[in-house]
Amino acid sequence: MKNQSDLEEVLAFVQHEIMTNGQMQDTGLVVSQDSIRRIIKLVDPQGVEFKTSHPEKTDPKVVASYFIKTVSGIGGCPERIRADRGTENVSVEEMQMFLRRNHPDSFAGERSFLLWKKHSKLAH
User: Fold this and answer.
1) What is the mean pLDDT of residues 52-62?
2) Number of folded domains in the chain?
3) Which residues form the domain of 2?
């Protein structure tokens, strides 16, 4: 991919996000999804191992139940969620948009769920 950001800069950004709030605000960095996967594997190998060793992570019912438990536990939903087009995310997308439907900010309703594209800027 042409015009990609320097991987050391992306690595530093991902490390910072994992160690802090993890909201991945707009940085203007341009990077492929594959590069992000590789960087996260370097930065958080235990998290990657957990995710790959638990096949239920792709079961839509399980993923939806995690979302419901988290929203109930913290007493609210995130301002926005970024996810891929996987079938495991469909229910989360619908719940997120429903829960954010009446919020007065710019991330209400449909704007609260963002699809990750293969070649995209990090967190628009």
Assistant:
1) 77
2) 2
3) 1-53
CA–CA dist 80, 35 (Å, integer): 23
pTM above 0.85?
A: no
In 1-124, alpha helices (H): 7-19, 33-43, 45-52, 60-74, 90-99
Please report whether residue 5 resides in a domain. Answer: yes
Q: pLDDT > 90: what percent of the chain?
A: 19
Q: Rounded to an integer, what distance in angstroms lies between the CA atom of residue 27 and that of residue 40?
A: 17
Residue 113 resides in a domain: yes
Q: Which of 53, 68, 91 is at the close of a domain? A: 53
- Kind and range of the H or E run holding 119: strand 119-121
d(Cα 65, Cα 72) in Å, to the nearest integer?
A: 10
Per-residue confidence (pLDDT) for residue 113, from 0 to 100: 92
Residue written as token pair 């015009």: 3
